Amino acid sequence: MMHTTLHWSNQVTLLFDSWNTKSWPSYALALLICFLVALFYQRLEALRLRLRLRLKSAASPANPSPPSLSTPLIVRKLGRNWKIRLGLAALFGLNSGIGYLIMLAIMSYNGVLLAVVLGLTVGYFVFRSEDFGDGDDSFVAAEPCACLDSL
């Protein structure tokens, strides 16, 4: 039976019927996996935000020359940095999918919540907190999650 309130038990079903824990070692392994997935989520988010910063810094000058007729149509429509933008879109989609899976795991209402929050916190500290310490305000991300950040 799935609980709808916070409970503490080593018998949990996470995401799929086949992923259930029945002992403390399997529960600890599930918590470790949730922690690592949350850590990976923050790593991907840091990578996506750095790519986004690179795209902004590589933007064309204030008075760009108009594209010539020999410029391919896809480059005229998408811009010269279309590969970076495509990579950003792919990372955003992947990170959003992972974020929603994390959200569903949290909804098991047990220690998974603590493992995920701890993983997100450690991931943010390791992969993203250095962005605020060097006095450079060019890279500021207000939202910790990809689904809350607007492109």
Précis, in short:
54% of the residues lie in helices and 3% in strands.
Jot down its keywords:
3% strand, two-stranded antiparallel sheet, mainly alpha, 151 residues
Mean pLDDT: 78
Structural class, judged by helices and strands?
Answer: mainly alpha
Q: Provide the gyration radius in Å.
A: 20 Å
The strand count comes to: 2
Largest sheet: 2 strands, antiparallel
Which percent band covers the strand fraction?
under 5%
| Series of H and E elements | EEHHHH
Low-pLDDT stretches: 135-142
Indicate the topology.
Blueprint: E1 12-13, E2 20-21, H1 24-57, H2 73-78, H3 82-106, H4 112-127
Antiparallel strand pairs: 1-2
Helix pairs in contact: 1-3, 1-4
Please explain how this structure is put together.
- Helices cover 54% and strands 3% of the residues.
- It has helices at residues 24-57, 73-78, 82-106, 112-127; strands spanning 12-13, 20-21.
- Strands 1-2 form a two-stranded antiparallel ribbon.
- Helix 1 packs antiparallel against helix 3 (82-106) and helix 1 packs parallel to helix 4.
- It is elongated, with a radius of gyration of 20 Å.
- The two termini are 40 Å apart.
- InterPro entries: Cop_transporter.
- Keywords: Copper, Copper transport, Ion transport, Membrane, Transmembrane, Transmembrane helix, Transport.
